[in-house]
Amino acid sequence: METTRLIIVAVGGQGNLLASKVLGEAALLSDVPVRMSEIHGMAQRGGVVESAVVFGDAESTIISDGEADVLVGFEPSETLRAINKCNSKTVVITNLSPFPPFTVAIGKGVYPDLDKLQDLIRAKTKNLVAFNAVSLAKEAGNVMSLNMVLLGSLIQTNSIPLSADNVKETIRTKTKKAFVEANIKAFDLGFSAAKGCD
Q: Within 13 A of 114's CA, how many CA atoms are on the CB side?
């Protein structure tokens, strides 16, 4: 089976680890070989959290610079920071709702301009799907469903070997019962949003 390398970047508390767990479980349900790893950083303090998910026949979860087939960013500046993992064939999906770091809040840093950020990503990659995923998560009934919105968009791009049905089944069985309805709605909203970004 062909190998597909996915990087997911977020800041602590955005649900990156749950998203990668859902993808891993959906891969098992689909009989797709999968390997995963995470880098937590300073997650509790709003620091970066990075997950690597490799589908197919691969011996390692290490995704070197230029090797990512897909990059999903839960936070725009983190998406840009991970651009070195991409190449001219990479599909990039990013939330456009900023979660500025502490340095910006205290005036020691400047948040990148979102239009320039998108231009930089488009110049280096094959396809950019960019939209405000936070607003769709709120529409679904839970801002914490941001991760499910982005999973829906990821599946819509057909860039990983998983079906919407198997991912939704995993959301139903592997996420907290109280959030299943909002999570499924968020997934569907993200799936639809990605159609309009091509």
A: 12
Instruction: Report pLDDT for 40.
Output: 64
Question: What domains, with CATH codes, occur in the chain?
Answer: 4-195 (3.40.920.10)
Closest CA to 7 of 50, 59, 41, 61: 50
The confidence band for 45, taking pLDDT boundaries of 50, 70 and 90, is low
DSSP for 93-141, please give it: EEE-S----HHHHTTSS-PPPHHHHHHHHHHHSSEEEEE-HHHHHHHHT
Is residue 41 predicted with pLDDT exceeding 80?
no
Tokens linked to 79:
């998406």
Closest by CA to 41, choosing from 5, 81, 9, 63, is 9
Q: How confident is the model at residue 98 (pLDDT cuts 50, 70, 90)?
A: very high
Check: CB of residue 37 under 8 Å from CB of residue 51: yes
Q: What would the mean pLDDT of 108-129 be, rounded to a whole number?
A: 94
Q: How open is the CA angle 134-75-176, to the nearest 5 degrees?
A: 55
